Amino acid sequence: MTGTLTIAGLGPGSDALVTPEVTAALAAATDILGYAPYVTRVPPRAGLKLHSSDNREELQRASEALRLASEGGKVVVVSSGDPGVFAMASAVFEALEQAPQWQNISIRVLPGITAMLAAAARVGAPLGHDFCAINLSDNLKPWAVIEKRLRLAAEADFSIAMYNPRSASRPEGFGRALALLKDAGCGERLVIFARAISAADERIETVTLNEARPEMADMRTLVIVGNSQTRRVGRWVYAPRQVR
Ligand SMILES: C[S@@+](CC[C@H](N)C(=O)[O-])C[C@H]1O[C@@H](n2cnc3c(N)ncnc32)[C@H](O)[C@@H]1O
């Protein structure tokens, strides 16, 4: 078996934030698989097949990537940001678990800059102390689990990075998450809405949780809720290194 499977993170959007090792893997690939908006970020060239699919087809895409690699392809599965953060790396390993015949394929996971780090860097250092990341999509977990994790994160005074905050098919959840955090006494905490980070239409807004409205987020937004110490200094937002 001579094929390889690389799972690569394309970063948040700008070409300047794609790592050199990901660029090299894309240049050597015979096949690129991924959600259509991510595959379109890879320029077409002779000898390269681009396989776009819907964002609900991760497991199917992962199996297809393994099959192509088993047939000798230099296959790259692309994700935005980092492939291990709410993205394709887990889906590939899930598919591998179900398919022992592919377990000898050479696999590499190449990291990328995840949205919460790109967003944090734009505003200062809001993840400078203990933090957690929560995916607000309830496609793959019950909403009750999301609520429990938010409640405990608030109680533990973590800064909270929220991925997938709000979509057309899930318009209600983010408002419920904001209400839960307000009820948990976080109303005065700073909340950063970081939309389309590093893309041409990037937009960043920082308000208190009491001022935050669900419509301020969509599926291209990464939301960071500060901890109780997170504060502004001039135009910047940061979490102090010391907890009192
Ligand atoms: C399916 S998750 C993929 C996360 C990705 N693997 C990462 O590491 O950033 C998609 C979510 O990531 C966030 N996201 C991805 N790119 C972003 C960007 N450029 N600006 C703001 N948020 C982004 C949004 O919350 C979006 O709903």
UniProtKB/TrEMBL annotation:
GO BP term (any one): cobalamin biosynthetic process
Pfam family, one: TP_methylase
Residue stretches making up the Tetrapyrrole methylase domain: 4-212
Protein keywords: Cobalamin biosynthesis, Methyltransferase, S-adenosyl-L-methionine, Transferase
Keyword Ion transport assigned: no
InterPro entries: 4pyrrol_Mease, 4pyrrol_Methylase_sf, 4pyrrole_Mease_sub1, 4pyrrole_Mease_sub2, Cbl_synth_CobJ/CibH_dom, Precorrin_MeTrfase
Pathway(s) of this molecule: Cofactor biosynthesis; adenosylcobalamin biosynthesis
Record GO terms (molecular function): methyltransferase activity
PANTHER family assigned: COBALT-FACTOR III C(17)-METHYLTRANSFERASE-RELATED (PTHR47036)
Name by which UniProt lists this protein: Precorrin-3 methyltransferase
Species of provenance: Bradyrhizobium shewense
